[in-house]
Amino acid sequence: MSDDRLIIIYDGHCVLCTRTVSRLMKLRTISPIQSIPLQDIRVATLLPEGYDQDRLNKEIHVLDMSNGRVIKGADAIVYIMTKLPSLRPVSFIYHVPGMKWLASRIYQWIAKRRYDLFGKTDECDSGHCSIK
Questions:
Q1: Cα dist from 26 to 5, 7, 38, 39, 99, whole Å
Q2: At what angle do helices 99-112 and 73-82 cross, to 10 degrees?
Q3: 110 vs 9, 12, 18, CA distance in Å?
Q4: Tens digits of pLDDT across the chain (132 residues)
Q5: Which residue, 55, 24, 49, 51, is CA-closest to 131?
């Protein structure tokens, strides 16, 4: 049996990240989606050997278990959108010339300042946090 899950690896300390993932998990999807905070010990077993923790701290990552692909940042957000029928039409905007560049810059700017802009939670300190 094929594993067609998407696994979202997000910052469990980030209020914006946890709220966004929580909302995404409630939407109807084309592929099963699982979310795991980057602080969870299971993350190390999912990523390729030697994957840099610093990269995980900088941006969201999505693992497509059907092909082993790791997608990150703005590309990951759009990839998730393609798997959600309610958001799929919005994902096509990403293919307008210049939008990928712009989305990437906006994503990086927000990701770098996420705690200052949206706050930080300590719910994930145990390493076993999850979306309720």
A1: 15, 15, 20, 22, 27
A2: 110
A3: 17, 16, 15
A4: 678 899 999 999 999 999 999 999 999 988 899 999 999 989 988 888 778 788 899 999 999 999 989 999 999 999 999 999 999 999 999 999 999 999 999 999 999 999 999 999 875 554 445 554
A5: 24
Buried b (16+ CB within 10 A) or exposed e, 2-28: eeeebbbbbbbbbbbbbebbeebeeee
| pTM more than 0.85 | yes
Both tokens of residue 127? 């390493």
Q: Which residues contact 55 (CB under 8 A, 6 or more apart)?
A: 61, 72
Q: How far apart are CA 84 and CA 81, in angstroms?
A: 5
Exposed/middle/buried for residue 61 (C-beta within 10 Å: 0-12, 13-18, 19+): buried
